[in-house]
Amino acid sequence: LKSPSVLTNSEREFFKAVEFFGQIVPSGVRRQRVLYRAAEVFFTHNQFDKTRESLEMLLRDRVVSSVSISALRLMAETYDLENKWDRVVETNRRLASFAQGADGDTLENDLSFKVGSHALQEAFALENAGRLTSAAEMYESFATRFPFSGDAPYALFRAARLYRETSQFGDSERNLDRLLKEYRNSKYQSEGE
């Protein structure tokens, strides 16, 4: 992760104008687009706190649009780049509830797919290499970091099974309990029982 870079004079002037624009223009998609562009500039300069500040200003309107959904995804990515996994999960939950209010469907987060699919591939490779405890830890970590992923129940199921195979019964039971509690409608539910 690179350290934040300095903004040019023209970028600083741009942000002053955006801030003023954000104060005088009523809520709406047009306002969201301008604030999102400002956040993108901060993001390209690795100024993640400022990125999130612009995004939060955009989200205060509670106008559900593709821009607001993108804002939450970008916010999650800033936390991911800073290795703040608890905030990634929190933002993913916020994204899911925000998106559900939009059209009744829970959206899968692109970040979960991109990062998560790599983590699952790594866990599978560890399992095939006979490193069962490491694989179980990777599966469990995936389910914790990406609880809204469609693969989270599978990851908990695999973790529980691998922990059981390595006689780590407490760890196995913890993952099965999570599977049964958090993913009641999962196809792995009956297998976990």
Please provide a written account of the structure.
This protein is mainly alpha-helical and 193 residues long. 75% of the residues lie in helices and 0% in strands. The chain is built from ten helices and no strands. Helix 3 (48-59) packs antiparallel against helix 4 and helix 7 packs antiparallel against helix 8 (152-165). The longest helix has 19 residues, at 85-103. The model is unreliable at 102-114 (pLDDT under 50).
List its salient traits.
193 residues; mainly alpha; 10 helices; elongated
Secondary-structure element series? HHHHHHHHHH
- Overall average pLDDT: 79
Strand content: under 5%
- DSSP E strands, number: 0
Report the structural category: mainly alpha
Separation of the first and last Cα atoms: 43 Å
- List low-confidence stretches: 102-114
Tell me the helix content: over 70%
The number of helices is 10
Q: Report the major sheet.
A: none
The value of Rg in angstroms is 20 Å
Counting copies of identical and different chains, the oligomeric state is single chain
Overall shape: elongated
Short description:
The chain is mainly alpha-helical and 193 residues long.
